[in-house]
Amino acid sequence: MPSPLTRHKRDALSYLRGGEGPPLVLLHGIPGSAYTWEKAGILLSAHYDVIIPDLGGFGGSETLEETLYLDHDFYIEAHAEAIHRLLDLLDVKPLYLAGHGFGGPVALTLLRLFPDQDVQALILSATNLFTDPHVPLPLRLANVPMLGSTLFRFFTGTRPGLRLLYRLATHNKVTFRKKDFDRHLTRSGRQEGWRFFHRSLANPQRTYEEVEAMLPTLNLPTLVLWGRYDPIYSVETAKRLVNALPNGSLSILQDTGHFVPEERPEMVAWHVDDFLREIPKRTADKNQDRSSLS
Under a CB-based contact definition with an 8 Å cutoff, are residues 44 and 269 in contact? Predict the structure, then answer.
């Protein structure tokens, strides 16, 4: 049976947790918080120990400047270190790992920096992991001096601008309502979101170079979940990602925009559970094939 997710805080990071079974860690995107995965996480708690952190500065977590993690300028690595430290404190290992949006590069950076984390499978949702992303307006304004920078900050760092992003990027507004979206828009979350948007879009080569380089070497079973009507990252981006992965599979959700876990929590939970349940069977089949060849 699904379990309620309860709020906890360790080492400056707030997180939701509930359920029993193999650990399943779900990372949110920007704008976002642990609420991104809450509805899907409740359903998945029937079979997994679900852990949904607020990334540093988002939701109920302290900003990275207020913790011990800001030893580097490179933002994604600092978030990955924070998550690793939390999981170490919770003694969570091995685990399944998922990332939506910005949670995708954080998840891969966690794999790169901390291979001892023993991640068994990966789920990626509506995320960019390439150095040459197609960037829609108004996000393309990140590189425009003066007026463009001001407009960019409005669209990515203020409540009115982010609410406009919600209207443009959400296809299923019946399930994912504006008041649900507004839960993400804390003051520090808006500030941290603007900072990341600006860093990543002003210099995507620097932001995603090491992440993109990992893709051909990532032998983990990987499920890619995408919304058919995502206006930020198109289905072509999803196909490109799956083609870059040695062991990737793609599920496209109909009537869904960019905010996949919140627009379709039931379908996301079903796809994730079905994917993870198949992994032992796939492993057994591979081992049997090896035995028959020896």
Answer: yes
Which residue type, as a one-letter code, is found at position 222? T
Look at residue 282 in the predicted model and tell me its pLDDT. Answer: 66
Query: What pLDDT, in 10s, does the model give residues 182-205?
Result: 999 999 999 998 888 878 877 888
Strand partners, 251: 225
pLDDT confidence tier of residue 290, bands split at 50, 70 and 90: very low
- What pLDDT does 20 receive? 94
The pLDDT tens digits of the residues spanning 162-177 come to 999 999 999 999 999 9
**Stretch 227-240: mean pLDDT, rounded?**
95
- Taking every pair of Cα atoms in the chain, the longest distance, rounded to a whole number of angstroms, is 66
Residues 58 and 70: their CA atoms lie apart, in Å, by 15
- Looking at domain 6-134+205-293, its CATH superfamily turns out to be Alpha/Beta hydrolase fold, catalytic domain (3.40.50.1820)
For 79-97, write each residue's pLDDT tens digit.
Answer: 999 999 999 999 999 999 9
Asked whether the whole model's pTM tops 0.85, one would answer: yes
What is the C-alpha to C-alpha distance for residues 34 and 56, in angstroms, rounded to an integer? Answer: 11
Q: Which residues does residue 5 pair with via DSSP β-bridges, in sequence order?
A: none
Cα 213 from chain centre: 18
Q: What six digits make up the tokens of 260?
A: 């996949």
